[in-house]
Amino acid sequence: MADANGLFVSFEGGEGAGKSTQIRRLAERLRGLGHEVLVTREPGGSPGAEAVRHVLLSGAAEMFGTRMEAILFAAARNDHVEEVIRPALARGTIVLCDRFMDSSRVYQGVTGNLEPDFIEALQRVAVNGVVPDCTLILDIPAEKGLERARKRASADAAPDRFEKEELQTHEKRREAFLDIAARDPDRCHVIDAQRKEDAIADEIASIVERRLEAADHMAAVRPEVAQ
Ligand code: Z5A
């Protein structure tokens, strides 16, 4: 459990899978039920991490190598966790985060060819114990996701550092996210993101509402958890 009071939900998957769309919808639904909700994203989410986001997505750090990029992602994540996510969870807020630690495992680890031990050591420092209670992996064939992302982008917007990579690399990432889900079934749920927005939103809401009920139940049977 990420924190004694709030609930930490991360959204993962390839480009154009619909993460931002579904986060918006879930936030609206949960706020309608009276919950306090924080929507945030990575890289970014805190002033320091947003500055690093620009460096990473513009490709300015690419020439220094994947290892350097991985460390920058981790530095941004640690700032985001300590400045934003941990305090929000401590206030009892539901935190919805667009990408988190699994993106580093996939983009820098699997397709960036960095050793798993190096990635996991960085993660430990970056998250410092704040791990999502629930991760929703939006799964879509890479080609379809990229097509959606391209349609959304304005005609003159250049693809970012990661979007411009080969289709094969994007497919490898899809497999890597599915592999993470298979290894951590208590935390991760794979969502078929090829369906209509409404069907996806309903499935996500029911998963998160179940998690909230379970968290309430835990707090009721172990009152010290909520302190
Ligand atoms: N990165 C990394 O390498 N390491 C890390 O540790 C972290 C990140 C944290 C951040 O990009 C980049 O950083 C990312 C990985 C890397 N790589 N890239 N590129 P970003 O934040 O700019 O973008 P993104 O995370 O990849 O998301 P996205 O491309 O913006 O897509 P999305 O949020 O999943 O999708 P969307 O914006 O909700 O939807 C895309 C379009 O599809 C839009 O027009 C929607 O209206 C439409 N849509 C959504 N759902 C549907 C359905 N169900 N049907 C039809 N159309 C739909």
Describe this structure in words.
The chain has a five-stranded parallel beta sheet, with helices on both faces. The relative contact order is 0.20. The chain has a single domain, classed as Rossmann fold. The protein is globular and about 50 Å long. The chain is built from eight helices and five strands; from the N terminus they run E-H-E-H-H-E-H-H-E-H-H-E-H. The longest helix has 25 residues. The two termini are 14 Å apart. Helix 3 runs antiparallel to helix 4 and helix 4 packs antiparallel against helix 5. Helix content is 56%, strand content 12%. The protein has 227 residues and is of the alpha/beta class. The site of ligand Z5A has 26 residues, from helix 1, helix 4, helix 6 and helix 8.
Features:
227 residues, alpha/beta, Rossmann fold, 5-stranded parallel beta sheet, 8 helices, 5 strands, 56% helix, 12% strand, globular, binds ligand Z5A
Write the CATH homologous superfamily.
P-loop containing nucleotide triphosphate hydrolases
Return the CATH architecture: 3-Layer(aba) Sandwich
Helical content stands at 55-70%
What global shape is seen?
globular
CATH topology label: Rossmann fold
**Unique ligands:** ligand Z5A
Integer count of domains: 1
Mean pLDDT: 93
The spatial strand order of the largest sheet comes to 2-3-1-4-5
- Unreliable stretches, pLDDT < 50, 5 or more residues? none
* Radius of gyration from CA coordinates: 17 Å
The ordered H/E elements are: EHEHHEHHEHHEH
